[in-house]
Amino acid sequence: MRRVVPFLSALFFLLSACQKVNNQQEELTGEAIVTVKLIDAMCSSVILQIQEDSLKKFGEQQFHYKGKTYDGIFSSSMNCPIYSQPAVLAVSGSINEATSFKVLISKTAPASSSCEMVTCQAVLSNMPGTFYHVYPIR
Question: What are the domain boundaries of the chain?
Answer without folding.
Answer: 27-136
